[in-house]
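Hey, I'm writing a tutorial for new members on how sequence and structure tokens pair up, and I'd like a real worked example in the thread rather than a made-up one. If someone can provide the structure for the chain below, I'll link this post from the tutorial.
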Amino acid sequence: MGTGGSPFPRTAPWLVSGGPGVIRLFRRLAAGLAALALAGLSVPAQGQQPATTPQGTAPSRPTIAVFNMAAVMRDYGKAKYQVYLLNKKREELSKDILVWRSELAKLQQEYQQQQVAELRDKIGKQMVELSRKIQDREAEVNRILNDEASAIISQLYDEIKLVVDKTAEMNGYHIVFAYPDAVTAEEMKNPMIKELKLKPPAAQPFYVARQVDLTPVLIQTLNAWYPPKDAQGNIVDVNKLPPLGQGVTPTGGSAPANPSQR
């Protein structure tokens, strides 16, 4: 990701395909979740006083765990399905725009070939009106998609936060940090990511022991608790989604029980 403080370049291979508009939305989802997680997981609730250590006893050593938000977003099936649905909606809402752009291209060609000044002026006015129509529709589509992306961010954050809280409670972690980092071996070798990691906007771990990395258990639990479902409530296999347009065993702790099973 190249925006929102994320350490990924614009060509990060795990981004869902579907055009720059959806890629930007996916970046926004990941970046927004990372920011929310860092705020929600490391800041005590307002109005609560920090606990004090009883006199005469040594303070207990806090236990800390981390997880890679980029990896969670990549492998969380529901997040990928939401991006797919946004991509699909973008295509549906943009059908008129594609038609109008084709018409605009024809008008531009006619304008260049027209020799009569009066007719050129008429075509020019049509081009201006059509261009404004396209801009207005694009702004409307972006507003609709941005509103839906904001709702998705809120829902995904609540789900990730609950799973992190329960996993931390079950495994005795006092603090859980979220951080964005490379996921694949190819990304880890990317010079742009290495450079950005040397200029982190906040604490960025350079080493994470497997026993404190909750990423795998969070992904497994999220996919078990909140599987992607279609409008009819059927579970969706995100690996078998049709293309649009042109375009394990956890090592960081034990998974908490599904709330619906308790």
